[in-house]
Design brief:
Shape: globular
CATH class of the largest domain: Alpha Beta
Largest sheet: 9 strands, mixed
Number of domains: 3
CATH architecture of the largest domain: 2-Layer Sandwich
Number of helices: 8
Strand content: 25-35%
Length: 345
Amino acid sequence: MQEDQNTDIENEELYEHHRFVASEGQEPLRVDKFLMNFIENATRNKVQQAAKAGNVLVNDVAVKSNYKVKPNDVVRVVLTYPPAENLLVAEDIPLDIIYEDDAVIVVNKAPGMVVHPGHGNYSGTLVNGLIHHIENLPTNSNERPGLVHRIDKDTSGLLVVAKTEYAMAHLSKQFYDRTTERLYCALVWGYIDEDEGTIEGNIGRSFKNRLQMDVFPEGDFGKHAVTHFKVLERLTYVTLVECKLETGRTHQIRAHFKHIGHTLFNDERYGGDGILKGTTFTKYKQFVQNCFKTLPRQALHAKTLGFEHPTTGEFMRFNSDIPNDIVECLDKWRTYSEHSNHEEI
C-alpha cells in the first residue's frame, strides 16, 4: 500500500511556477537565497519548505536548500497545481479610462496597481479589470490580454491597451520600432548641473540582486537602452526631470538614473528610500521622512503617451496630470528650497 502511494506521488503532474537560468557571472550561492532574490514576496522559510518537499529542481534534479547555484544552472520551482497567473479572473475594478474606441483604450494607471497577474499578485491587477470591462481582449505571447507595454506597480500614468488582434500587432510594431512617444516626470536625488542630457548603457538583470536591473556600459550583456532627459526644476537636494524614452527596457529610468548617481526619490528597490543627499541636521531628516510619507513610492509618472492609431493612422497624444502625492511632495521641497536659501531648516 505504501509503495502504491509513493508511486502516485511520483506520477502526480507537476506544474512549473518559476524558472530561472543562472547567469554566466553567477557566484556560488545557496539556492534558497538565489530564489529569494528572484521571487518577489518569497520568504526563506517558504523556499526551504519547498525544497524539503522536493519542489525545487536544479537541472531537473530535486535539491536541498543548501545547494550552491552555479553559472548556467536551470532552477525551477514546481508544484502540483497550475500557476495562478494563468487563471485570469475578471474583476469589477474601477479604471481611469481617458480614451476608448473600437481599437484601443488609454488608461491612466494609479500608483500601487499591478499591470498584470504575476508572482504574488494574482488579483486586483489592471488586466483583471480590463477583462471585466471588455470581453475577448487579444492575447500576446506572454498570455497578457491587450498589453503591448507596461509600467511598474508603483509608477503612475498612461498605458495603451489593444482591443483587437490587428491593433495589438500594429501597436507592438510601433513600440518595437520606437515610433511611440513616451514622456515621464521623475524626481531624483541630487542636483543635476546640466540642463539636458542622454543616458546610454545596456540594461540587464543584476548579478547581485535579481529583483533589480543594472546598467552595463560596455560588453554584450543586457539590452541597448537610451534615456533622454531635461531638467524641469532644481530643488536644493533633489531635481525634477522630464525623461523621454528612446527604448523601453524594464526599470529603464530607475536603473539609468541610479547609474549616474541620481537615484529616484523614495525608490525602495534601488535605494532611494534613504537620505542620499542633504545635511545632517535632525530637522532635515524629519523633513525628508515627511516627504516619504507624503509620497510612499518612487517619484515616477508616465505623463505623456503618443502613438499612431492602428485604424485611422492619426498620431494621437495623451497627457495626464501629475498625481497628488508627487505634487504634494514637490510643494514640500519648494518650500524647503525657499527657506534653505537663507538658512538650514
